[in-house]
Amino acid sequence: xxxxxxxxxxxxxxxxxxxxxxxxxxxxxxxxxxxxxxxxxxxxxxxxxxxxxxxxxxxxxxxxxxxxxxxxxxxxxxxxxxxxxxxxxxxxxxxxxxxxxxxxxxxxxxxxxxxxxxxxxxxxxxxxxxxxxxxxxxxxxxxxxxxxxxxxxxxxxxxxxxxxxxxxxxxxxxxxxxxxxxxxxxxxxxxxxxxxxxxxxxxxxxxxxxxxxxxxxxxxxxxxxxxxxxxxxxxxxxxxxxxxxxxxxxxxxxxxxxxxxxxxxxxxxxxxxxxxxxxxxxxxxxxxxxxxxxxxxxxxxxxxxxxxxxxxxxxxxxxxxxxxxxxxxxxxxxxxxxxxxxxxxxxxxxxxxxxxxxxxxxxxxxxxxxxxxxxxxxxxxxxxxxxxxxxxxxxxxxxxxxxxxxxxxxxxxxxxxxxxxxxxxxxxxxxxxxxxxxxxxxxxxxxxxxxxxxxxxxxxxxxxxxxxxxxxxxxxxxxxxxxxxxxxxxxxxxxxxxxxxxxxxxxxxxxxxxxxxxxxxxxxxxxxxxxxxxxxxxxxxxxxxxxxxxxxxxxxxxxxxxxxxxxxxxxxxxxxxxxxxxxxxxxxxxxxxxxxxxxxxxxxxxxxxxxxxxxxxxxxxxxxxxxxxxxxxxxxxxxxxxxxxxxxxxxxxxxxxxxxxxxxxxxxxxxxxxxxxxxxxxxxxxxxxxxxxxxxxxxxxxxxxxxxxxxxxxxxxxxxxxxxxxxxxxxxxxxxxxxxxxxxxxxxxxxxxxxxxxxxxxxxxxxxxxxxxxxxxxxxxxxxxxxxxxxxxxxxxxxxxxxxxxxxxxxxxxxxxxxxxxxxxxxxxxxxxxxxxxxxxxxxxxxxxxxxxxxxxxxxxxxxxxxxxxxxxxxxxxxxxxxxxxxxxxxxxxxxxxxxxxxxxxxxxxxxxxxxxxxxx
Length: 921
What we know:
Blueprint: H1 3-14, E1 19-23, E2 29-35, E3 38-45, H2 52-67, E4 71-72, E5 75-84, E6 87-94, H3 110-127, H4 146-153, H5 160-177, E7 186-189, E8 198-203, E9 206-212, E10 219-222, H6 224-234, H7 246-255, H8 260-287, H9 292-308, H10 313-323, E11 345-347, H11 367-377, E12 382-384, E13 406-407, E14 410-414, E15 434-438, E16 451-457, E17 466-467, H12 472-476, E18 479-480, H13 499-506, E19 521-525, E20 528-531, E21 536-539, H14 552-564, H15 574-585, E22 593-597, H16 600-615, E23 620-623, H17 632-636, E24 655-658, H18 675-689, E25 696-699, E26 702-703, E27 709-710, H19 715-725, E28 729-733, H20 748-751, E29 758-761, E30 772-776, H21 778-782, H22 798-813, H23 816-835, E31 841-847, E32 850-855, H24 866-878, E33 881-882, E34 885-886, E35 892-895, H25 903-919
Parallel strand pairs: 4-9, 11-12, 21-33, 23-24, 23-25, 25-28, 28-29
Antiparallel strand pairs: 1-2, 2-3, 3-6, 5-6, 7-10, 8-9, 12-14, 13-17, 14-16, 15-16, 16-18, 19-20, 20-21, 22-30, 26-27, 29-30, 31-32, 32-35, 34-35
Helix pairs in contact: 2-3, 3-6, 3-7, 4-5, 4-8, 5-8, 6-8, 8-9, 8-10, 14-22, 15-22, 18-19, 23-25
């Protein structure tokens, strides 16, 4: 039917004066109707194959779902009978629901998948108990008929290989469902709560499923089929895989609890649904070859099937049952099973916290073999790895998909070949329906060679030696620890347990953590962070670890000093003098005197106190949108509303703020940015005129919290001069940008061509060791005695000073400032290229390895895309990148990686960001 005919139908049948725009459909004919005031509804011409009774059932079901609080496509006009080519059809107008659906191949975030599951559960509850004559129909989409349907329609699948795999998978799945079929509740189901038919509300740039349309597949069937259909549709989306559907399963279960039988058959039903999609789509393409909707769906339907069978149903079923409170007990070998005595046996620990993987040893191939042979050379009769362990040596860096790290068996090395009387595994029988598997086919196990030993359920799918962490629980449910067969104790499979809950119970909750569901990080190496599951992430946010995580030179220096001495700085030792000299030598005259503290907050606090005692005044001018610390004085001058929503309204009277000199989105933009300095100078003058000349002007010399932005040229020179003219001090907070991060300059103030009176430093100084400093002139430092004396118990301790010296040595010897310049320049170019292709990127700020990508919903209004930014960070975590938002608007990616980041890491980050911006978040 043409759009012109649809316009005529709407006018003649319902008196509607509208325009019509075709919408896709597999078997009906749909048009969006537009009136003068916007969308007027959806004109739906039902396929003549469906009766009035069926249509009335659909409309009644939609009313029930709407009454349950979901948005639903209820009928507003009709149905009426109209003539169509070759007969007649029922036509009605359905309510238009704004916000769009989840249709397409874009990425679906876990929270969206969970909401899809919750909507599906609410639909199921709304339709429970609904009865209508129009439900008594036989549909090809009813999963109760899936096995027969696949057999009948398989001939339409043109690819013989695909046809065989579809029929084979459907047959296996049906054999899993059939024994439990009588236990599955039957009720009215929508039958098509899929990404195409779930509508969303949009808020903050993010979609939230909250309604359903298209009740054309309404029927009476297994209730659990509603969920199976919904989660199958997830599998065709970018980045989706079987484990991606688990949030929907848990959310559905929370609304409409699954029975044990329903949980057991859910994944086989997903496989059947995917098989039905393939064969039905192929048949429809034959029947309606010109239907673009049908032809366009073929690829997505095949993608659903390939994903559904990519993991054994037994594995997915365990993940599902574990997630809905039907956990399976672990398998174990039968008590008393005859085992093997390995003699003197060494157990290798290859987990993330293990000392064996220190100093990046896990990145060198063959670590396990080297360790095992060394142990055999040392007199061991055998060496084994641990069952269920997440092995870091199996991981890899810069991986968008988690590598297979979790061991489903153990690896064994023998000092002598196996045989009668010595480690003869060939005679072992686990019993209890389990079978032993060995990777070596010969009659004897060789000496000094790796042999994989596994125990699995007899007849289970072949179990890989290592599996991905997301699926580990499912695979391990098919296996048992072989250790007892070898005379070893059962391995304790490590897990997080309630660690996050323990943290929340004992740790003040105001001390937040990154991410709502954070990975547990227990190791770092250079620019990489490793979770306990063996997943390795690229650290793009950690400017504390300036020289990289776990640097051997720093570790050795600190360990050596701890063995010798660690005490407070009032004792006389060489390190404090050497470190103070080294720091002072990095700064221009007259900055020659050092105070050592433990943190940036203490450094800023001390800098302000120096200004107070030096000038005899209390007033301070600070820049808005900045964070300087948590002590009383440093918090008083912190103006970031991201860190404290009341920051600007709760400042003490001695703090005076000036506009953030943001040339991108502030009051003055572009060429007008020089006016920020004019306004700041005017404020200083006004304070002086009022008899309150400032003791200090405090600012980051390269704007950090706002997203890595350079200050307007000449800004600090003008403000410093005016503050000094009135007797005040200029304080440069270098805590984030100092130590070579900017590439061109070691200190941020160098970019502005000025020399401050006081410099505060921290973060990078100790590479994670608590260390901070204030560097000033001898004349300013000496004035502190007017207020008493200064002392910090551990600021400037021997260990702290040695740590600080080691960091400076590494920055110099490894050329990290030059690396920040070269890699940072390259990365900025990559990000600017992305900005040319993705409208969400408003600007790329920064220099060196201190960059910011600012996201906006509109490049004209610069509306901050805060919700999108957080969602992008969550998606980047899934792709193996640690990233967080910054700025008062929380719409900027704060890109501050360790200074050892290489080009490969820069490319990995840029490629991952490109993927997120392309596929969605």
